[in-house]
Structures are given as C-alpha cells and as structure tokens.
Amino acid sequence: MSQHRHPGAPGRAGAVPTLPDLPEATVARLPEYLRALHNLADAGHETVSSEGLSAAAGVNSAKLRKDLSHLGSYGTRGVGYDVTLLIEQIEYVLGLTQRRAVALVGVGNLGHALAGYDGFAGRGFRIAALLDADPSRVGEEINGLVVRHVDELPAVAVQESIAIGVIATPAAAAQRVADQLVAVGVTSILNFAPCVLSVPEGVDVRKVDLAIELQILSFHEHRKASLTALPGGLAATETQEAIGT
Amino acid sequence: MSQHRHPGAPGRAGAVPTLPDLPEATVARLPEYLRALHNLADAGHETVSSEGLSAAAGVNSAKLRKDLSHLGSYGTRGVGYDVTLLIEQIEYVLGLTQRRAVALVGVGNLGHALAGYDGFAGRGFRIAALLDADPSRVGEEINGLVVRHVDELPAVAVQESIAIGVIATPAAAAQRVADQLVAVGVTSILNFAPCVLSVPEGVDVRKVDLAIELQILSFHEHRKASLTALPGGLAATETQEAIGT
C-alpha cells in the first residue's frame, strides 16, 4: 500500500528490480500523468487528488487509479498522491532517470523539424546524432549538430551510446535504415515513415503516421455526419454520390 | 456474409446509411489495411488472403479478420478479399470518399514541416489553410499557401469548408486555438501541442506528442534492461544510482 514502491523501499535491499509488465495502454498514459504532475509541481502543489490529477491529465479518474495501482501507488486517503514521489516513480518506471540518446535518421522536411524540436530535451531525451543518406545533406548543421552520413551509424551508435533510433526517411528507405539500426544494437525505434517495419523479436517499434491520425479523425467526422442525418436525407445522398457503383 | 456491405449493396436502396460504431483500436488499424491494400493494388493484386494482408499491414491475421468482420467483410473462402472492393469499403467507412480540408494553425518549426508534408494529399486530405498568430509570419508562402492571421479563422473555415483543424502551436496557445476552431464549427482536431485540450462533447481530438512516443519506448528499453539483469547485478545498481535518496 506504500506509494513508494521501487526506490529505496523498505526491504528492497539486494532485491532484483522487477519492472512490472504494464498494459500497453497504461504505459501510454504514464507520460500524460508525468507531464500533468510536472505542471502541478511547477505550480507549487505538493499533493494531488486522483480527481485533480485525472482532470489535469485528461484521463478518467478510475482509469488513473487503476494505472497507478499497477505501480503500487495508491495515494493516501484524504490527501491524495505525493506529487514529487509520484513523479519519481513514473520517471523510474519509464526509465527516464537516465537521459537517453536518440539518433535521427533522415533530415528531410519532417526530420529537419524533429531535429529542431525543443520538446525532447526537457522530457528525458537528447538528440545525439543526425544522419542522412544524401551526400548533399551531410555536413549541414541543424541545432548545433552536424549531419553525418548514415554509413557512419555503427561508429556513431557506439560513440553516443544511442538508445533510440528515429526514422524520418521516405517509406522506401525506412526498412533499410531499420535494419542498420538493429545491426548496431538499437532495440527501440520510432518510425515516422509511412510503412510497416519488419524487425526481430526484442526490438520495439512505435509508429507515428500523421495521415493515419487524420484518417481516424475522418472516420469520426463521417460517423458524426451519419448520426445527424435524417432517414433518406442528406447522408444517404452523400453515400450514393460518394460511392456510386 | 457479403464482402460488399455499404456501397450499392442489394437492398440498401433508400436505407439510412448506418456507420458501425467501431472499436477505437479497429478504427486505428483500418488506415493500415488501407495503405497495405493500395500497395497490393499498385502491384497488380486483385485478391489477397487474410494472411497476406495481415503481413502487409503488420497486424495479426485473427485481429484483421475480426476488424474486417465489423465492416461486414468476410472475404471468400479459398480466394480471400477482393482488393478493390475492400479499399472502397474502408475508404467509405473512414469517410475518405470526399477529400477533407484541413486548417493548420501554428507554422513554427513543426507546423512548417507539416505544411510541407506531401504525405497528406494522397491519403484523402488537403491542407487548405495555414494560420498563425504571429504577424511576422502572416503573408509567408509555404508550399503554395499564404499564411493568414489566426483571427481570420472564421472566414477561412467557411471559405474552405474546413473539416479538420491541426494545432501545431506552443502548448500555451493551444487551448485558445482549440476554442477558436470549435467556435467556427470544427469538430475534429489533431493536436501536436504537448497539452490536454478541453473541448465540448461531440468534438474529437487526436493527439500526437512526439516526446510521449519516446517515453513509451524508454519504458520498453528500461524493461528489457531489467529483464536481462542478473540478481543483485547491474540493474539493481542502476536503480540505486538512479533514484538515490
């Protein structure tokens, strides 16, 4: 029932640290809680109720309590969660107590923007290397880093202790880059290229596909339109026009 | 049991189009199937087995069959799915049979890259307007579009029939922009700002937070490291160093 499970908890001396195998949806929400908690801490709050935290994180409070119970955090009745302690716990579980080095491959339009994105540094990451296959881009300086040729990846990965690879190449080049990242021992990849990567067991890939996000919204637009349509009315017309035969 | 449920199916004449309320995870996978199907069509395939499609989309085949069954698509035993028909069905469900107009608010580093991203056009979307609150950016031309002041949003939304708003502003400005989008009738928002938006019922918000994707990968890195650690070995040391107290 302690809110403080991992770090220096009574009885943990000599124990193997056991990281819970959390549901993927819980893992995806922990960063939201973390950001909300940092905002609360910045505003001087020392404790927060589950309702307060759930509102700040945009998650319903029953879900939040369940998520945090996976970490062994139950808060204190009438007081809530200790903000600093919960930040420490979540940062521990997310492995953010060390700053991870990121290699970004592909500095085209999107990669260029990512290289200059200042939202990573404050949240546990350091863009440590920029690489590109295009010789005309090699040598370019972006945000204080010089673009290197992707063939230098093996050397760069060792020098910079790269933990995470970000792929921002065109789709046609992405699999080859993924293979190169895996070959140099990178086991976590964030893929912005609109394609499915094939990687060996033990390599985690997260994908961000901007068009897919829009397509999901499109579904909801379409569904909202169909719900407000009158029988035989506008939406039916739209269907016929849109699909034809 | 027909693969062809919505468009012009026998008996649908005069029926109200009923869009199934699909599980959110299914909605998120439909664009993956669609992309894989387009690739198959481009390569000249007329049919595809569920195994073939699931491999191309990077989704397991039982999940794929279940997802498609929500659309009333069961394929044909021994033949599989008709590629063209399934593309039509998914595009219909996702509302991609009309090209939706997107307004992008915030043309800083990331917004600039999004404005120039050519991955939207082929997938059902048209960036129809760029807006920014910074007067020094207004008038700038990006990819053939002139940046307009965000105060022009009401006029732009009507002129361009904006269906989806994309927010790429700093976190501090995002809620105000969301309010402005909602005020002009936009009910679908893609938010790149690292913050939670509060919107009325009936407005859908999808969020892309690049640092959160890295934090999720960090969890998996951390967990992989803890699984390979020996009892009392490196990982335990890491824990103590990392957390202290």
From TrEMBL, chains A, B:
Pfam families listed in its UniProt record: CoA_binding (PF02629), Put_DNA-bind_N (PF06971)
Binding site for NAD(+): G106, V107, G108, N109, L110, G111
Subcellular location: Cytoplasm
Predominant localisation class: cytoplasm
Transmembrane segments: none
Gene3D superfamilies the UniProt entry points to: NAD(P)-binding Rossmann-like Domain (3.40.50.720), Winged helix-like DNA-binding domain superfamily/Winged helix DNA-binding domain (1.10.10.10)
Keyword line: Cytoplasm, DNA-binding, NAD, Repressor, Transcription, Transcription regulation
Aminoacyl-tRNA synthetase keyword on record: no
Chain ranges of the CoA-binding domain: 95-196
DNA-binding region: 32-71
Region (Disordered): 1-20
Function: Modulates transcription in response to changes in cellular NADH/NAD(+) redox state.
Record note on quaternary structure: Homodimer.
Family indicated by similarity: Belongs to the transcriptional regulatory Rex family.
Protein name per the record: Redox-sensing transcriptional repressor Rex
